[in-house]
Structure formats: C-alpha cells, structure tokens
Amino acid sequence: MQPPAPPTKSCNSPPTSPSKHSSSRSPRQAEHADRRRKRRRRSPKKCPAGQPPASRCHGPRLRACLGVPVHTPWVRVSREDVLVAGRRIDGRVRRTPLLRPSGLDAVWFKCEFLQHCGVFKTRGAFNRQLAALETGELGDAGVVVASGGNAGLAHAFVGRELGVRVTVFVPQAAPAVKVERIQAYGAEVRRVGAEYAEAFEAAVRFADEGGAAFAHAYDQLEVAAGAGTLGEEILADEPSIDTIIVAVGGGGLYAGVAAAASGRARVVAVEPERCPTLSGAMAARVPVDVPVSGVASDSLGARRVGALAFAAQEVEPPVSVLVSDEDIVRARSALWREYRMPSEFGAAAAYAALLSGRYVPGDGERVAVVGVRRQHGPEHAGDAQLVPTGSLASMA
C-alpha cells in the first residue's frame, strides 16, 4: 500500500506556522501573538534613550525617533514651488544683476545686496505674505515673525508695501541698527529672551492666541521657495553655470536654491565652523542642535538646520564646506576692496570658501556666489575687526 502523498501548497493556501508551540496555543493566545507580529512590522524600533538617533537610524526608523509618522515623507521644496513663487512675486522684487567674472577670478556674483532691504529674505517674505492673502489666511492680526534681524526687516518692508500689519519678535541681543530699520518700516518690535529660540516661542504663542499668520524666518515652504527664485535667475541669466555657492544658517536659501538648481547645477553649502547646522545634520543623519558663536552668528547663527534644508540634502547632498571666522573676515574685506561690494559677515561666508581655498573649482568650472548682502550699520564694510559675538542664536 502506497503511503499518502504529502499535502501540496497552492498560492492560495494559508501559511503554516513554524512555531514549535503552535499546537499548544489557544486561539486567544495565537490571536495576541499575531497582533504583536503586526505591531513589530508596522512600528520601527526607537533608539535607546541617550543614544543619538543618527548613530543607527535612517528612513522610517529615523522618522520614528523624531516622532514623525513613519510613512510621512520629508517635505521638500520643488522647482515647481520656486517657479510658482517667481510668478507670484514678479514685479515686486528686483531682478538683481549677475556680475560677470573679471580678471581677478572666474566667478559670477549674484548682487543681492541691491534687493529691497539689501537682503534676499525679501523674496520669501513677499511670497509668504502674498500666498497668505490669496488663501485668506491673513486677518486683522496680520503677520508675526521671529527674527534676529533680516527676516524681520524683510517682512516689515513687505508689510508696508502690501498694507499688512507685521509684528516682529527679536532676541534682546538683536543688532540695534536692524531693529531701528524694522520699526522704520512700521512694524511692531518685541524683544524677548536672550536667544532666538525664546523669541520664536513667543511669536508662536502670539500667533496662536491672536490669530496672526505665522511666518518662519527660513523653514517654511513659501519662504524657501521665494529665496530659490534667485537661483532661477542665476541659471536663466547664465545657463552655463556649473556650481552655485551659498552661505547656510537655518537653510532656507540653500533649500530654495537646491530646488531651483536640481539636475542643472551643483550646490556648495558654506557654513561658519562655529555654527555648522547643515554639516552637523549631514554627519548625524538627523537635524541636531549645534553650539553657536562667531562673527557670523547674528545672521547664520541657527542652532538647528531646518527640515526643508535637511530634506534637500537627502535628495541631492551638497558639497559641504566649513570656513573659519578669519576666513570670513578676510573675504568680507576683499569683497569691498576688490569689488566695492558691501557685505555682512554671514554673506561673506560663501565667498570665503573660494578665497580661503576650502573649495577649489575644477578646471573650467563656472561658479556663481550667492549671499552678498548690504551692511546695515554705519561701520565701513571693509573695516570690521574680528570680534566674536558670543552665543547669539538668531536666524537672518
């Protein structure tokens, strides 16, 4: 007599459990075990307390460590966002010139110091406020922003142009000359706390309690997309540009320019050694707090890079360059001496990468530098001495 043939599995047959305990489990125990297996598959394991998430996590596990829903992708500025911003702010911002190379070096300069208020932030401020007007988000309470200076200056100017009430929260150590200019544009200034983080929290509370539309200094889609329009202008004016160099603080400008340049030009992200938010996040594979100090801290002194910038570097990692305070001071002096370009320390950081040799272009590489901003104080642009500014953590 032939032994019975072993049962065959079809594609539709339920899987059999390999567990040696399966025969002894009650239906209720088996149901609980199945639920535990499903939870393990659905919820990535969080990192042990006290261990930096970046040391072992990425993808869904990283999102779990940050408290972000597992299946929620990082929000990223797209080129379409930048193009939409360009159409929205067209005729309201200046199309600043792209200065062609001289005999000194083969570098193009995007002369954003000729922008309204002398800062690129005006682009994002117009895009944010105009978008809020389009959606009906703006009411009688107007717009509120926390800023160490430049973002507040830009929003104050834009509010005056559009007839929008603007309230700016600044840290106590914000430069007096910027605060005075913000007030001159008609905005209300409130000084809160020793650092930007305290001013930021106060601005968020003000928005929640009073109904004002909140404008982030750098980590907001409309703000970063507006900043990215200068990248579009660079590549429209000179399509042969291979590399765009930007200074990075909170990362709004970098995120916008990276979106505009995606697939067309390389981006070099330059940071002061004493406030390296983006390079710190890239090394840790997650945004992390960094110590903040140095000559450029009043404009590049973010404690943590924004989510938009972090998302941008995940898709197309930039060339990351760190420069010293001495490099920045020399670059700022050279910009005035050789080109008669007035600049803040933070703005000079981008050119410092080239002047110091920390970024060396390849043969025939065509490089554009972004971030030249007007010096707002009475101080001569080339005469400043190297005086560290402590631990002010403000975002321009």
List the defining traits of the structure above.
Rossmann fold, 396 residues, alpha/beta, disordered C terminus
| β-strand number | 10
Number of helices: 14
Helical residue percent?
40-55%
Class from helix and strand fractions = alpha/beta
Whole-number tally of structural domains: 2
Give the second-level CATH assignment, the architecture of the largest domain: 3-Layer(aba) Sandwich
Distance between the termini: 89 Å
Oligomeric status: single chain
Strand order of the largest sheet: 1-2-10-7-8-9
Averaging pLDDT over every residue, what do you get?
81
Task: Report the uncertain regions.
Answer: 5-23, 38-72, 377-396
Strand/helix succession: HHHEEHEHEHEHEHEHEHHHEHHE
Largest sheet: 6 strands, mixed
CATH class of the largest domain, please?
Answer: Alpha Beta
Strand portion, in percent?
Answer: 5-15%
CATH topology tier name of the largest domain: Rossmann fold
Radius of gyration: 25 Å
- Rough shape? globular
Topology:
Elements (H helix, E strand, L loop, with lengths): L26 H16 L16 H8 L12 H11 L8 E2 L7 E4 L10 H15 L7 E4 L3 H13 L3 E5 L5 H9 L3 E4 L4 H15 L2 E3 L5 H17 L5 E5 L4 H10 L4 E7 L4 H8 L12 H4 L6 H9 L3 E5 L1 H15 L5 H11 L11 E3 L27
Parallel strand pairs: 2-10, 3-4, 3-6, 4-5, 7-8, 7-10, 8-9
Antiparallel strand pairs: 1-2
Helix pairs in contact: 3-4, 3-8, 3-9, 4-5, 4-8, 5-6, 8-9, 9-12, 13-14
